[in-house]
Amino acid sequence: MKGGFRQSMAWLHTWSGLVVGWVLFAIFVTGTASYYRADITRWMRPELTQVQSAAAADLPAVAERAVAYLEAKAPDASSWFIGLPQPDRPLLDLFWRHGPGRPSGHALLDPHTGTEAPVRETTGGDFLYRFHFELHMPPLWGRWIVGICAMTLLVALISGIVTHKRIFSDFFTFRRDKAPRRSFLDAHNVTGVLALPFHLMITYTGIVTLSLMYMPWGVTTAYQGDSLTFFAESGQITAPRLPADRPAATAPVGPMVAQALATVPETLEGLSIVNRNDAHATVVAVFEEPHGLSHEHPQVAFDGVTGAVLEVRSGGLKLAAKTFTTMVGLHEAHFAGPALRLLFFLCGVMGSAMVATGLVLWSLARLPKAEAEAPLGLRLVQALNIGSIIGLPAAVAVYFLANRLLPPELPGRSAWEIRAFFAAWIAAALIPLARPHRRAWSEGLVLVAGLCLAVVAADIAMVEAHPLRRLGEGEALFLWFDGAMLALAALFAFAARRVARYRGPSRSEPRRAPVFAAPGERARA
Amino acid sequence: MAASRPIERAAILGRVVLAAGGGYAVAALSTALLSVTLPMPRSEAVTTATLLSFAILAGVVVLVFALATLRRAAALVLGAILVLGAGLWLAAGPFVLAGGAS
Question: Which has the least CB within 10 A, A18, A191, A299, A370?
Answer without folding.
Answer: A370
